Amino acid sequence: MNSTKYILGIFDDPDDMMKGIDNLKEKGISIYDVFTPMPIHGIENKLGIKESRLPIAAFIFGCTGCTVAFCMLYYMLVHDWPMNIGGKPHFAVPDFVPICFEWTVLFSSFGMVFTYFYSNHLFPGRTPRVMDLRATDDRFVIAINAKTNYDHNQIDSVLKSAGAVEIKHNDRKYISYE
Amino acid sequence: MSSQHESIIREPLITGDNITYSKITNDILFPVENMPNKAWWIGFSVASLGALLWLCAVSYTFWYGIGAWGLNKTVGWAWDITGFVWWVGIGHAGTLISAVLLLFRQNWRNSINRSAEAMTIFAVICAATYVVSHMGRPWMALYTLPLPNQYGSLWVNFNSPLVWDVFAISTYFSVSLVFWYTGLLPDIATIRDRSTGIRRKIYSVMSFGWNGSVKTWQRFEAVSLVLAGVATPLVLSVHTIVSMDFATSLEPGWHTTIFPPYFVAGAIFSGFAMVQTLLLVTRKVLGLENYITMFHIESMNKIILTTGSIVGVAYLTEFFIAYYSGGEYEQYTFLNRFIGPYWWAGCMMYGCNVLMTQLMWFKSVRTNIAISWALSIIVNIGMWFERFVIIVVSLHRDFLPSSWAMFHPTWVDVSVFIGSIGLFFTMFLLFLRVLPSVAMAEVKLLLKSSSEQEKKKLLKHGNIDTAQVEYYKDSLIKYDSIEQAEYQNT
């Protein structure tokens, strides 16, 4: 049996790669993933990837931060030890604004970034799951699962006609495990 | 989409012929992947000597207390808080470039945001060391935090702007750090995939396993946008709160409601000047002329001119309000900036910040590298004097004339300040050595839309209005990285 696990169509131009994606989709060939050195705008619609919900997470984290800060200030200044500072009111809401705001920002940015790291499995020391080493440099790589798309010759010709500069048949999914 | 063509009348953001994606990587990673040149070593030696001086002076301060400084009963804040506000202000430009310009879709930010953000982080580190060392006993820094303690717990006074400042600066530092590092991940992955051996292992750990798949990029962009959205009000709030340290007091010269916008404009002003100081040298030494072009330099000069003028208007407003308020203490304070013993500090402040920046109305000044660099240094000096005038000159004439005093810095004051500049440059030079100084992924985005070579193709093949072509060619004359002869013949 053919030992090819993944077929990589390697492009040196993002527009050619987009054409490659269109052509593959026309032929009904499913795309496993695309690896690029820079964000490609409009690719998520082509690949049918839903819009990220990270901004919603950021909003919820921000609300949490604001609430936590307000509760902390209320507990410390009003409930636990109300101090008489020149006879002014303890529950001085305008004075709460700066710290509530700072914590809104702090919680939303840290919450969102850590959610991002969690959802994409990014953490220090994680083994990079890279299919082609130049995909972070100057190559735009379309990866096709060779086990679910049987007609390898057709895939090759589709990629080539779209302008792929190189086509790889990899026996291993990731080359970065050694 | 990357093939989207930009109008011909927009100036190119990447100049030079035969720029490819791999050339961008090679050019930008050159200082990271090769041994540093002589200029770097000279700079690094001088800077690390400065950092050493800083270490000695700060240690001396911790050992003997802040009596080592020239402070006296009347002038209780001097070079320490001047230095603190100066550094925090410098830091603001990084966030402005990375966040505000991203929200406004200013693509020219792509090649300067990385080093500006790095500058932010190092400047805030310098500022933070001032805050800690001006406490005299650094462990007292713990008492600014609302931690449970054996006094009851006795909490911090959250009504005080000084406590707000603790929260603002620490939030600002950590959010800037996260913003910067997240943006670095794809570029660290590029270094990782090009290197071998131990280098690869180190960059592999630092890259968090980035692989550039569609979802990573899609979420990355969502994260960048939202972070920019929250960092924009954050950066405005930070210097607002710094200004409230002064504005909420009853000290004539400090007690002004214009302080928040005035400080924010001043911060952006001084920050852009520092970015200009650093980048004009960096672009030359690292050979990045094709990525940091004359357009970038001129745009930054325009921002310096705008914010400098806002600062000028704020100065005038202060004088007017002092006159109009009828408060004699207020009037005396402002008059004293010119006729008092510190008249020279006042002249430095108004001369450097307002008069000198007005030169930038001239295009020949804005596009002259040597003059721009000199002006950026002048702005940095002027902004230091602004804080000195606000702090020391306001304080040195007490309400009681018997308490009037001058401030005389000791060698420790001077060493902490010069040392902090050394520390800043040490960190910046190390950054240039180990991390890409330009956001590669973001510059690659511009290659097929706003580069000179794409515009050349447009000129060749596109049916473009001749008036627009002339306009475009005129706009290229200022560039020092473009072969002018090519355009004159066609």
Automatic annotation (TrEMBL), chain A:
Keywords: Membrane, Transmembrane, Transmembrane helix. The chain crosses the membrane at residues 56-76, 96-119. The keyword Magnesium does not apply. PANTHER family: LIPOPROTEIN-RELATED, QUINOL:CYTOCHROME C OXIDOREDUCTASE MEMBRANE PROTEIN. This is DUF3341 domain-containing protein.
From TrEMBL, chain B:
The chain crosses the membrane at residues 39-64, 84-104, 116-136, 162-184, 222-242, 262-282, 303-322, 342-361, 373-395, 415-435. It is found in: Cell membrane. It is a multi-pass membrane protein. Pfam families: NrfD. One of its GO terms (cellular component) is plasma membrane. Keywords: Cell membrane, Membrane, Transmembrane, Transmembrane helix. Coiled coil: none annotated. InterPro entries: NrfD-like. Belongs to the NrfD family. This is Hydrogenase. It comes from Mucilaginibacter arboris.
